[in-house]
Amino acid sequence: MTKKATKLKPSAAEVKLDKTNIKEAIVRHLHCTLGTDENKANNHAWWKATCSAVQEQVLERLRKTQKTHYLNDTRAVHYFSAEFLMGRLMSNNLHNLGLFNVTDQALNELGVNLADIMEEEPDMALGNGGLGRLASCFIDSLATMDLPAVGYGIHYEHGLFRQEIKSGAQIERPDSWRDYGNPWEICRPESIQEVSLYGYVETKYGENGRIQKEWHPGSIVKGIPWDIPVVGYEGKTVNVLRLWESQASGYFNWDVFNAGGYVDAQTENVQAETISKVLYPNDETEAGKELRLIQQYFFCACSLKDIIRRYKRAHGDDWSRFSDQVVIQLNDTHPAIAIPELMRILVDRAELDWDAAWEICTNTFAYTNHTLLPEALEKWPARMIEKILPRHLEIIYEINHRFLDEVEKLWPKDNAVKEKLSIIEEGNGKMVRMGNLSVIGSFAVNGVAEIHSKLVKQNLFPEFDKMWPGKLTNVTNGITPRRWLKACNPKLSALIDSKIGDDWPTNLEKLRDLEKFAGNAKFQKDFMRIKHENKVILAKEVKELTGVDIDPNAIYDIQIKRLHEYKRQHLNLLHIMALYRRLLENPNYDMEPRVFMFGAKAAPGYKLAKDIIYAINQVADKINNDSRVNKKLKVVFLPNYRVSLAEKMIPAADVSEQISTAGKEASGTGNMKLSLNGALTIGTLDGANIEIAEEVGDENIFIFGLTVDEVEALNKNGYNPYDYYYGNKELKAVLDWLETDYFTPGKPGALASLKHSMLDGGDPYKVLADFESYSEAHKKLDLAYKDGKRWAEMAVLNTARMGKFTSDRSIKDYVERVWKLSPCEVE
Ligand code: 26Q
Predict the structure, then answer these.
(1) From the CB of 477, is ligand 1 less than 6 Å away?
(2) CB–CB of 122/174 below 8 Å?
């Protein structure tokens, strides 16, 4: 196909902005978009006007990018993810466009402070944690690297709940990020899609005896696309994140209703608007919820239709090139229903034969696994799929049938292996295993850190690895250094620029050039002065958020991540209680002043996780108000942890807590962000910590605890937490302390559930086994901090050696090993 571009004169928005232009644009939007003026405008209005001025630039580049991709008929990756944790976009977009400083000056001359108005922007919190943030880092890298890509997800009306802390306990409040509009998004009514649900399948016989299946849906919902432009660094490529909002279509199949009997029209007429209403927290109690499955199918079906519409525009009905042009990355199994959906389109609609359709499908999809925890592997009741997506269940059975024939060839008459590999888990109430479906329907499967991928191969899918050698692989996660260093830590970024030049944001290995300054007294002083200044800023924030005074001269020791037993915030807490006890017993106990900080949301139905938050807050309250110890020890729990709070905490961290039970944390990405900003890690040999240790060197990290093999051995030989309880007096004392009313005056036993989980509960995450080793690692850390020069050198070396963990490297790995994409430069 040949297409020709027409050369147009540059429009006003294309002229590179200088300070005067920016001032003019902001004021123009204040007047013409917001209908206010310089004298009346509050910070919110200034924020919106500034967004509009920036968006003008962004949209021009978006248009050019789309045209270029169309004219070049590029192969593109389509990143399917139920979550995108974008955070705020103003600072990021300004930095990526190279307009941050000039906009700061422009606003200054208008009497407005850029940092203040940026605080007006609500976080786009359309994700739970690591998986959603990874998706956001990846689309930043894709645009930066000029790779044709579209992110596809759900336009949730409410993102992850807002957390309030009342009397120490977590309260969930709705997140209303769009109440006053989102200036970054564009509605695209011209690309609305319709999605079918419920109903029944009719079997017909075609002319040549071909069996034809027709799905008569019970209801149809509309998907409305909202596009969020994704600006690459230095602003050449602008890709899109397309998020689908659900709306009623008015269609209701009365035939199905009147046919009656087996259908209950009330329950099948899902309230269309509720589909995209709220993001599910990653909560066991929410597992298997019908609406969640509908959400997954809804966004996958909309996205596939969108992709196919675009493909057909260039290739008509010729399906032979589909998988040359389209690759779809499944971010965990949440979008796995896209596999039978594409099969349905190819077989039932395009009337391809099964084998041809399956060939296309298995050349299109790739799947990323993010967890080994058995309870987190998605399974859906077959009956539920049958009710909502009757044709898809048939297709899943057919995929499985043909797959099990292959298994039979490899392992003849071996029913155990068939049972294990089958997409269907038998039992009373068949279940569909979405992980198995994803592996079978994809051409590549990856884990997210070396150790994790090794365990995916060895423990989770060993037979699949034998069936298809090479299909299972590793792509270690990464983070975008544009957001996680340049934008969030401007002072350190400027120092780095002055030493090694300013091209490190797109070439993070360049940071190695800082190694030669690591021992330099002047550089160490500058580096640690900046850390101190960031700590002063955070101290002010902590005071505002919690009322607690913290001393910037203390060690800032930070654990920020979702609350989960495997992440072991309670191990951190037990150690804090041990320090408290040591200080009470010996007021001269030698330790550097320390502030322990936490940020974490617990899934609303996860009782023990909420108990841990409560325990942290109660212990914090006691310690912070105990004048015997509070010069040396403070504990703060910062409420409503989210991307924008992470951006304030990370630049101020001295110590990064990465203390999951070995084998449980697939990768972690906060570990990378903290180390990049010069925090030293105290951590287990788990997830990406192992690769971080390899990069920074064992002498620049505090590793402790059981290894994966040791955890496995303990499990095999029988683990008894009481051995550790009775074997360590200090540990016994702090655990017993939890049962008193010392931290919960008048309420003895209020923290007892914690102790019980670690003793009678069997301590599944080996907290007690790792306690002593953790405590020793903290002693070493304290000692290292006392030697200021040595600490500074270690901190610098952490920053210098994080090059591997740029998400640009992850994307390069995906491009070379999985996607086979080529960059396409935009002008
Ligand atoms: C499942 C069913 C019902 C409702 C929600 C969910 C659900 C939602 C989100 C299950 C899991 C998630 C998120 C998982 C996640 O964030 N995993 C993390 O992914 C990171 C990126 O790869 C890794 O670094 C972390 O180690 C991993 O825990």
Answers:
(1) yes
(2) no
Q: What pairs with residue 446 in β-bridges?
A: 368, 473
Widest CA span in the chain: 92
Q: What is the pLDDT of residues 653-662, one digit of tens each?
A: 999 999 999 9
700 and 680 Cβ atoms separated by less than 8 Å: yes
What distance in Å separates the CA atoms of residue 654 and residue 553, rounded to the nearest whole number? 11
For residue 268, what pLDDT is reported? 53
**Residue nearest to ligand 1 atom 7, measured at CA:** 282
Token pair 């927290």 is found at 281
Q: What are residue 167's phi and psi, to 5 degrees?
A: 50, 40
Cα-to-centroid distance, 338 and ligand 1 (Å): 19
**Residue to mutate, 80, 369, 371, ligand 1, most ligand atoms under 8 Å from C-beta:** 371
pLDDT band per the 50, 70, 90 thresholds, residue 263: very low
Taking only the tens place, the pLDDT of each residue in 583-598 is 999 999 999 999 999 9
- Give the separation between CA 825 and CA 632, rounded to whole angstroms: 55
Angle between helix 43-71 and 100-109 (nearest 10): 150
With a 6 Å cutoff on the Cβ, whether 134 touches ligand 1 is yes
370: Cβ below 6 Å to ligand 1?
yes
What is the SS3 assignment for 380? strand
Q: What is the CA radius of gyration of the chain?
A: 28
Identify which of 599, 537, 514, 579 has the alpha carbon closest to the alpha carbon of residue 795: 514
Q: How confident is the model over 727-769, as pLDDT tens digits? A: 999 999 999 999 999 999 999 999 999 999 999 999 999 999 9
Which residue, among 369, 376, 385, 466, has the nearest Cα to 421 in the 3D structure? 466
For ligand 1, is residue 122 a contact (CB within 6 Å)? no
What are the residue ranges of helices labelled H in 72-129? 90-97, 100-109, 114-118
CB atoms within 10 A of CB 699: 10
Amino acid at 116: D
**pLDDT tens-digit readout, 674-686:** 999 999 999 999 9
Average pLDDT over residues 179-199: 97
